[in-house]
Amino acid sequence: QFYLLSFLSGFAMQISTAMPMAILIGEWFTEKKNMAIGMSALGSGVGGSLLNLICSRMIAELGWRASFRYLGIVCVIVACIPAYFFLKREPQAAARDAEARKQKSESTAKEKASIRPVVYQFAALSMLINIAGCVLIYTSIPYLQDIGYSAAFAAAVSSGSMIALAFGKFLYGILVDKFGVVKCYNMSQFLAIFGLLVLIFFRSPLMLALFYISILLTCSYGSVGVPAAAEHLSKGVNTKESMGIIMAFGSVGASLSSTIAGYVFDFFGSYIPLFIAMIAAMVFSILVSRKILKGE
Cβ contacts of residue 88 below 8 Å, gap of 6+? Predict the structure, then answer.
């Protein structure tokens, strides 16, 4: 039952957060769109860091079953009801009806066109960087405990990671608007390697600053980088479908990360081989992305 609940929660999260948010905000903004997506995603990161503290206290006091029920009620009140009343139509509909009619035939032709092969290639690479990002942000907690730090310290690092992730989404949006999709994607790849190296050589809490820099712009890719990449790589043809494909591959990577981490730790008794393998995967991703994104 718990596995079913986890599956349904993950499914609901995907169809109600990242992709709908990117599409809706894309309808509202024509300039600095990625910064706007990052700003909205910042809320989810801040909410996640706060809910980590609230949920841990609720579970300790009420148990996980009652906590799930209360959180479900809060989600309905805070998210579902306002969404029903406020999200009525795209804001530019009234102003752009004439333009929409003018472009109707062109849009129909675009919809019939096939999705570009580079979208599928990029989606496969997105799966790798999502695995690396999830390893950074989630595996760091048991890893720190495994190398001798307290559970309280690891929990504090986790909360700090969520805060870094929240503001990283906003910063990532600004950088994408300024430097473009490809450069920011390459930056995320290099910072993923940097963060994994920090974990391997983690010897002092002072190194947390370096770790958070990696979290800031690696793990933000999934929320802000994917919508920008889909729009950029699709060339305006089947953009929403392209976004769905890239996000689907990324979600597969995120779901695999914990399983892979568990198997590696059970086999080697350490997370360091996992970090080394992910560094190799990121190097491979960099080399391949340079080839498939050349000219994009």
Answer: none
